[in-house]
Amino acid sequence: MDRTSVKIVVAGGFGTGKTTLVASVSEIPPLTTEEILTEASVGVDDLTGVEGKSTTTVALDFGRITISPDVVLYLFGTPGQDRFWFMWDELAQGAVGAIVLVDTRRLDASFPAVDYFERRGIPFVTAVNRFFGECAYTEEEIRGALELDPRTPLVWCDARDRPSSKLALITLVRHAMAKLTATAPA
Amino acid sequence: MTLETWDGDDESAAGRFVPLYVLVNGRTAPRDSTLDLATQVVALPVDTRRLEPEYVEIVHRCASWISVAEIGAYLHLPLAITKVMVDVLVEQGYLRVGIPAQQKIFDLHLLDSVLAGLERL
After folding, report:
1. ipTM over the 0.95 cut-off
2. With the CA atoms of A167, A170, A171 and A177 taken in that order, what torsion angle do they form, in degrees rounded to the nearest 10?
3. Which residues of A fall within a CB distance of 8 Å from B113?
4. pTM: predicted TM-score of the whole model, two decimal places
5. CATH architecture of A4-183
6. Residues 10-29 of A with CB under 8 A from B
7. What residue numbers bound the domain in which B70 lies?
8. Per the CB < 8 Å rule, is A74 touching B101?
């Protein structure tokens, strides 16, 4: 029997807990795979801080959940740095959708991720990571700050906690299914 | 007169002797563009004696279904190189490819099984 793989992207700004979330639900300790880039593949304007480097390395952390003998789910964390946007395209292509992690101390860090998935019509849920303590904002305030579509689910989570990460994943798959049903031709 | 002979050892103490781009013949993209990070491959029961050691290592990693990303992570190979090498092995009949993740529209049945699997976690 052929094996089918399914992808879910875990996005968010740098340090929002992406690898922590992957680790909490993955059946293997998160693995890291690397892509080596030459200068030519990196935007000239975005080379700040890497001047003089002929190559640079992007690390992707990922985990795995075996769904059934013939279906396996991979959770890919996005690279934190903005200059690796083009890697997101490969991760997002064919993915069920994305979980955008939000750190309430730095709401703006997750805005580019929200914008990315919204523009491409890729299903996503926002997961507000409570790892960092009590949240000073209401759901309405966070939705406003991130300019979230009212239909985009928002869940509260602790990325270290397996049931909590599991809930974020389930919310995403349900959302993707609802979106697929809504857009399917009659 | 001394004869310069090669003892057949590509791995010097200083590390890899053959650069990775030589192993992939200078190719930068897989022929099969549906190869994705998550695409599953598995080894076919074929004699690997004619393969370069780097390729044999990949085939050995594929004793059971494994993703392109996992091969790269375990063998410390950059992703672009892993994809090309996996593609070469598929082309030459050493590996079989599963159903790729790159499907634009998901069937509800697949999403349903993913949901059920997550609920069992």
Report:
1. no
2. 180
3. 67-68, 71
4. 0.86
5. 3-Layer(aba) Sandwich (3.40)
6. 25
7. 15-102
8. yes
